Amino acid sequence: MANAALVSCSLNLSSGSKPSSHLVPSASVSLQISRSPFRRILLKGDKRLRKCRTVYAMAVSMGQEAGVQPGSGSDHSSNEAPTPKKVMVIGGDGYCGWATSLHLSNKNYEVAVVDNLVRRSFDHQLGLDSLTPIASIHNRIRRWKSLTGKDIGLYVGDICDFEFLSEAFKSFEPDAVVHFGEQRSAPYSMIDRSRAVYTQYNNVIGTLNALFAIKEFGEDCHLVKLGTMGEYGTPNIDIEEGFITITHNGRTDTLPYPKQASSFYHLSKVHDSHNIAFTCKAWGIRATDLNQGVVYGVKTEETAMHEELSSAYRLWKRRPDPGYLDIRDTVQCIELAIANPAERGEFRVFNQFTEQFSVNELAALVTKAGKKLGLNVRTVYVPNPRVEAEEHYYNAKHMKLAELGLEPHLLSDSLLDSLLNFAVQYRDRVDSRQIMPSVSWRKIGAKPKTVPA
Ligand SMILES: O=c1ccn([C@@H]2O[C@H](COP(=O)(O)OP(=O)(O)O[C@H]3O[C@H](CS(=O)(=O)O)[C@@H](O)[C@H](O)[C@H]3O)[C@@H](O)[C@H]2O)c(=O)[nH]1
Predict the structure, then answer these.
(1) 213 near 165, Cβ under 8 Å?
(2) pLDDT in tens, 131-173
(3) Sequence-ordered strand ranges (E) for 197-296
(4) Where in the sequence numbering do the catalytic residues fall?
(5) CA angle, 279 as apex, 94 and 115 as ends, to 5°?
(6) ipTM of this complex > 0.90?
(7) Beta strand 294-296 with 323-326: parallel, antiparallel or unpaired?
(8) Which atom of ligand 1 lies closest to the CA of 114?
(9) Digit-coded pLDDT (tens) for 375-400
């Protein structure tokens, strides 16, 4: 089997607190869709999923009175998008979502977080924690209000529960919805059948519900959906931004770029993209699919304001697609997409990354930076648990966000130093058992996998 390079140093840097394996999937699988084939699968095979399901739909108002006035509303007869003012951030308690919520609030958008907090529940179930301490969502929002005077709304609930999502939509009336709220770990989706089913059910149904909510309650609302560069796979030709023009047997057409995803998680995003593209065509939905690269970094202008506003820590996670970006660019890209909405019926695709690195290049960079800080750093080679070509061509276009004005923060020595310094600061919180890959793409089976304490 091919080998992949990983960097480890005396601190055993972890890529965060992702549920890399084990235990009960989550507490959020909704069984309310009575005729769904997914329901049949769950009822037949997944008693544990049924048992642990808790749909907790609780809308918490945290001082909306001081917020910006609602957006100008929707002119349904026009193709012109209303100036977006109110943004719903689904998955707004997560790594990218929290930083984005703060950034948009700072830019005077009225923001509401929608999240079922399942990411925190994964961590509790698996005995994991973030390297950097993370405050509760309630404390985060209160701290933001006390520092800036700005309100962020909060709706705690599961978007697979359409009733919950409808109520959140009707009460907040968003002009734009940013959707981060998915199970986003490829290794997690490859542990066993139940995790694969959970990932695809949860992600596909959640996105479908968001599309139906827009159609029913705010048809001018712009969907900004987080996809991943992993949807494209690693073709032996240049990767375009969503579409490719092909001449075949003398005829020419511009078609969706082929998708060759390499995990059940990445495939869930491909299915989402197809559903979104179809509803843009059929219902006139406005949508932007952001195929994001690997995000790294801890600090944005806003999260750096107080330790209770801190994001999770992420150096890098291993992925076959070598596009990377700083968390400060993630929040900038989302803002650019919202401020320049898609037309009615338009399905836009932006490739959201700023630099490309191979794993070996990253290993060399981290090794060099660690040595500079006096750390004992080694590069070790471990078997690659994924099924992928070790050497392959990769050249992906990423112009559209730059054209809208993205000013990238590129990886520099000083940024690497600061990331490593974070790890040094929180060295006592490092759980070295979580570093090595523990899920094999080839060994996934139907038998549920459990994990010792
Ligand atoms: O059904 C769900 C699943 C998740 N969540 C919430 O969504 C948030 C996801 O946050 P995260 O920290 O697990 O994920 P994050 O790293 O922010 O990943 C985000 O950014 C990814 C791009 S990338 O960084 O992996 O390239 C996207 O693919 C993911 O969909 C998107 O959640 C969490 O608060 C979680 O509780 C829900 O509300 N409902």
Answers:
(1) yes
(2) 888 999 999 999 999 999 999 999 999 999 999 999 999 999 9
(3) 222-228, 243-248, 251-256, 286-292, 294-296
(4) 228, 265, 269
(5) 20
(6) yes
(7) parallel
(8) 38
(9) 998 888 888 899 888 888 999 999 99
